[in-house]
Amino acid sequence: MKASVRLGKIAGVEIGLHYSWFLVFVLVSWSLAVSFLPDRYPGWSAPTYWATGAVSALLLFVSVLTHEMSHSLVARARGFPVSGITLFILGGVSNLKADARKASDEFAIAIVGPLTSFALAGLLWLVSLALGDGNSPIHATLFYLVLMNALLGAFNMLPAFPLDGGRVLRSIIWAVTGSHLRATRIATFGGQVVGVGMMALGVVQVVWTGNFVGGVWLAFLGWFLQSAAGRSQAETAVESSVSGVRVRDVMDGDPPTIDPGSTIREAVFGRLLRHGARALPVCDGEMVVGLLSLTDVKRLSQDLWSARIVRSEMTAMPLITVGPDHDLAQAMDLLAQNSVHQLPVIEDGRLVGLLSRSHVIQYLYSMKELGIR
Fold first, then answer.
1. What are phi and psi of 317, to 5 degrees?
2. Domain limits at 97?
3. Which residue of 20, 91, 151, 156 has the smallest Cβ count within 10 Å?
4. 300 lies in the same domain as 220
5. What are 130-150's pLDDT values in tens digits?
6. Closest Cα to residue 330, out of 234, 243, 231?
7. How many angstroms separate the CA atoms of 334 and 331, rounded?
8. Do 107 and 216 have their domain in common?
9. Structural domain tally of the chain?
10. Mean pLDDT across the chain, nearest whole number?
């Protein structure tokens, strides 16, 4: 999820706020100020309730950030790049640039989040004990944070993918069976079951107990979890369908290329439009020196197409590339993670093909039409 507001970096990890965070901040502050705090701590003034609610809501998201930072730091310590953390309406997400390739890595990265939340709850509980009983905003804030961190840890430990508990479950099944695919299927099925159960429980709360806000929120969380698990299950089906497939089986083995000294007009009318291509490998002899994409061309005024040459407008090496024997599933990950539409296929420094998203989509569509699984 792309952050809408950048906050800066913590320990080298980019932190951002999605716009939905501001909505939930207001809702949490409001619910604390008009319901939770007055019920538990009567006798305060309205400004005190609102100020305490706002501070508690802010510190709750600091807790969520701490939870996500633990994921990111462990992931980075195990060699996985982390592009950043985004806080949004449902909490937060650590954006790892690659999935775990070993069960032990996934277990460590996943389990540390709930453990961090439980540790925060325990630490804040000890602080509240040290302060003793009281009716002050500080006591109220500590009580709320202890409660919410404990709930955050417990919720995330549900055996439902993509929650941390679901990832822990997947890592254990993966380690026992040796099959990442089988482990993912079981964990995502758990996510769908738990999600549907939460939606049903939310409806029960609204209809039978009259807890409209709590019921709707629980149903919304269940819907989000069920949808996320369903998407992961669909991705797993795709991964299964391309298991054992190599890049050479899908790529264009004879893509149109262009000389770096050609003009942009020649590239557009002689190659891009004629072949319906989105990008052209730029080759100097047998060596790839860059890639000219539609995006590169669109940045240049058409009046300059005859005057400018490909070398000056192309994206120069080093490029993100794959080999012909590269696993197709991994190549698909590279396309998605780097937000590119095509990958030059290189062998011994020479261009041997081009893999694009359209090639992958056509391959999957043909498999579906033929009933191949």
1. -60, 150
2. 5-241
3. 151
4. no
5. 988 888 999 999 999 999 999
6. 243
7. 5
8. yes
9. 2
10. 85
Q: Are strands 13-17 and 82-88 parallel, antiparallel or unpaired?
A: parallel
Question: Could you please report the per-residue DSSP string of 17-31?
Answer: E-THHHHHHHHHHHH
> Does the pLDDT value for residue 188 go beyond 70?
yes
Identity of the amino acid at 105: D
Whether residues 178 and 54 share a domain: the answer is yes
221 and 261 both lie in a single domain: no
For residue 161, how many other CB atoms are within 10 A of its CB? 30
Stretch (H or E) spanning 241: helix 212-241
A 10 A CB-CB count for 150 gives 17
Do 172 and 298 belong to one domain? no
Total residue length of the chain: 373
Alpha carbons 328 and 359: distance in angstroms, whole number = 11
Mean pLDDT of the 157-166 span: 87
Q: Are residues 303 and 237 in the same domain?
A: no
What is the Rg, in whole angstroms, of the alpha carbon atoms belonging to the chain?
Answer: 26
Q: Are 54 and 135 found together in one domain? A: yes
pLDDT in tens, 235-294: 666 666 666 788 888 888 888 899 989 999 999 998 889 888 888 889 887 788 888 988
